[in-house]
Amino acid sequence: MLKNHGKGVVLDRRLDNDTEPVTWLGLCELRIMNDRRWPWLILVPQRPDMQELHDLTPLDQAMLTFEMNLVGEALKKATGCTKINTGALGNIVRQLHVHVVARSEGDPNWPGPVWGHGTREPWPREDLYRFAEQIRASL
Amino acid sequence: MLKNHGKGVVLDRRLDNDTEPVTWLGLCELRIMNDRRWPWLILVPQRPDMQELHDLTPLDQAMLTFEMNLVGEALKKATGCTKINTGALGNIVRQLHVHVVARSEGDPNWPGPVWGHGTREPWPREDLYRFAEQIRASL
Fold first, then answer.
1. Domain residue ranges of chain A, discontinuous segments joined by +
2. Maximum alpha-carbon separation in chain A
3. pLDDT in tens, A37-53
4. Which of A42, A43, A41, A34 shows the shortest CA–CA distance to A127?
5. H-helix or E-strand containing B21?
6. Which of A52, A109, A137, B64 is most enclosed, with most CB atoms within 10 A?
7. What is the distance between the alpha carbons of residues B101 and B88, in angstroms, rounded to a whole number?
8. β-pairing verdict for B40-45 and A98-103
9. Could you tell me which Gene3D superfamilies the record lists for this protein (chains A, B) (predicted)?
10. What ipTM describes this predicted complex?
11. Contact across the interface for B112 and A115, Cβ inside 8 Å
């Protein structure tokens, strides 16, 4: 289900509920998954009708690639993690979005995936703001 | 652990063990995960020293994006699946590789991820060849 999100852009209700805004990139809105178990960012291309990466135009694909890499590099720098996990699944939330997650040995479900594992643990609000600020500074 | 793979290119031993070759693209070798639970392809950029997407040069990133989308579209066409799941994790196999998986309602672990779920079930050899041929025809 899509919700009007200002500027005429819409955001799926579940994405809106589970994530918090960080910044606006060229193609994508960058959001934080509100789950303190992992440093977890989500790119939402401003193309609410798209479901698959290959549905994007070649120009949008190039921009998304650029922004994914920008965000992956910033997240690795900010967290010092072992490995970035990048994924576009969309089995539950169909609006196209890309996960960029910082993973380290011994984190919950390591070396398995973050998706579908246990229950989301919201950040303390202050820590969420601090993490968002750290990401903006690393971009 | 990397294994020499002809033409001086190396392939991680676990990737080599769990997957079978399909075809050679411009940047990537395209392989099938030998697991009949899901139609599952793997792109292996011929950059064996790279671990993260953002380590690639901009030109390689553009080529990888092109090949990921080509393969995603072909897999969706060949399988009629509900959703393509794309992921670059690398928590276990560090050599850079990208998963492109065809997912449909009711498949094993739907709508959760394929990674780390249960035990790989090898294809009957004849079906594996047929699937590889179907993918080559759809590219």
1. 2-106+118-138
2. 42
3. 999 999 999 999 999 99
4. A34
5. strand B19-24
6. B64
7. 12
8. unpaired
9. HIT-like
10. 0.93
11. yes
Interchain pair B113, A110: CB under 8 A: no
**CATH class of the domain at B2-105+120-138:** alpha beta
pLDDT of A111-125, one tens digit each? Answer: 999 999 999 999 999
* CB half-sphere exposure, B37, CA atoms < 13 A: 15
Of A62, A64, A111, which is closest to B92 when you measure between CB atoms?
A: A111
Chain mean position to CA A89: 12
Closest C-alpha among A133, A138, A98, A127 to residue A37: A127
The verdict on A91 touching B (C-beta cutoff 8 Å) is yes
What CATH number is given for A2-106+118-138 in this structure?
3.30.428.10
Query: Which chain B residues are within 8 Å of A82, Cβ to Cβ?
Result: 91
